[in-house]
């Protein structure tokens, strides 16, 4: 289907509809991936492996 509009409200409506169709049909492609790297000393324990670090249960042993 081809639709044309010279200018004005019809053109803006077509542009808005075109943006909706593109947003619905275009797959999401990530532009980058940021790996999460966690380094711990041997005497640090119970560090959660999640995207949000919460240190409520983290402890350090004497060995």
UniProtKB/TrEMBL annotation:
Superkingdom in the source lineage: Bacteria
Name of protein: Extracellular solute-binding protein (Family 5)
Organism: Pseudonocardia hierapolitana
């Amino acid at each position: 289907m081809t639709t044309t509009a010279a200018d004005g409200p019809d053109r803006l409506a077509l542009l808005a509809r075109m943006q909706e169709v593109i947003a619905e049909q275009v797959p999401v492609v990530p532009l980058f991936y940021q790996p999460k790297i966690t380094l711990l000393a041997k005497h640090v324990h119970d560090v959660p492996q999640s995207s949000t670090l919460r240190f409520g249960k983290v402890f350090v042993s004497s060995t």
